[in-house]
Amino acid sequence: MQARSLAEVGRAVRKAGLSVFIFTGYYLHELGSDAARELLAVTDVLVSGRYVESARQHGVSWRSSSNQAVHFLTDRYAHTDMERSSEAEIRINADGQVTLTGFPEEELLTVISTESS
């Protein structure tokens, strides 16, 4: 729904030498609009498909439910990169701000929320 604007961001990210990784609730075959194709043209990895609670799975990189698919749209990443990546990443900035990205297991979220309160 924001593909055209995100394509602009993607172009700037690529110009800076960084990669573009997109998560969408749409399936790849639904991304046929001109704006979506514009975004996909600057995307290295696309994770597509709606999150389905009953299909939730742990231990699978870059996806949170088994119906989702990972598409490598450039040669920047490969399946081996998925195997080496963690499910979640925690960053703590110099000012103490904590950022959590990825798909952490409930146990990690519980520990983090307990420790921060």
Walk me through this protein's architecture.
The protein has 117 residues and is of the alpha+beta class. It has two domains: 3-85, no CATH class; 86-117, no CATH class. The chain contains four helices and five strands, in the order H-E-H-E-E-H-E-E-H. The strands form two sheets. A three-stranded mixed β-sheet has the order 1-2-3, with no helix packed on it. Strands 4-5 form a two-stranded antiparallel ribbon. Strand 4 and strand 5 form a beta hairpin. The mean pLDDT is 83.
Biggest β-sheet description = 3 strands, mixed
- Our count of helices gives 4
Name the poorly predicted regions: none
Helix and strand composition category:
alpha+beta
Strand order of the largest sheet: 1-2-3
Shape: globular
How many beta-strand runs?
Answer: 5
Quaternary arrangement of the chains shown?
Answer: single chain
Q: Tell me the series of helices and strands, N- to C-terminal.
A: HEHEEHEEH
The radius of gyration over CA amounts to 16 Å
Task: List the main descriptive attributes of the protein structure presented here.
117 residues; alpha+beta; 2 domains; three-stranded mixed beta sheet; two-stranded antiparallel ribbon; globular
Please describe the topology of this protein:
Blueprint: H1 3-15, E1 21-23, H2 34-40, E2 45-48, E3 69-72, H3 79-84, E4 88-92, E5 98-102, H4 106-116
Parallel strand pairs: 1-2
Antiparallel strand pairs: 2-3, 4-5
